[in-house]
């Protein structure tokens, strides 16, 4: 397995540097609508959580894409070919984690592609809440636990 994004919500200061770095790296503009990362703030527990694509092993977004605009590259990163994308947004509905969006101004899907192996969100995160590294077994387990918790939250919202 290659490097993955490791999120440590307890380190997040809600500065949103990750959002601005992602937006600028993708579009050369500081616009959160162009970012493939967002930060959810849970005020009741004083916790901010950077959210981005989980790079699923078996991505639901890829399964539902009717024009095969979503694929995995050789290193396993889930990518969107916006030239093929027709903007139907089925992938947004299919993502259980809510980690895809559509920028209507640019007519493009917005999803983390790990910045071609050099993710700016991790590189510029001042608190170390986002790291891009080879995962340890405990980090993989932590990632799975967090993903399961978010899946439960999204299933509750859908009820």
TrEMBL record:
Gene3D superfamilies recorded: 3.30.70.20
Name the record gives this protein: 4Fe-4S dicluster domain-containing protein
Molecular function terms from GO: 4 iron, 4 sulfur cluster binding; metal ion binding
Record's keyword terms, sorted: 4Fe-4S, Electron transport, Iron, Iron-sulfur, Metal-binding, Repeat, Transport
Record InterPro entries: 4Fe4S_Fe-S-bd (IPR017896), ET_IronSulfur_Cluster-Binding (IPR050954)
4Fe-4S ferredoxin-type domain ranges (all copies): 3-33, 76-105, 106-135
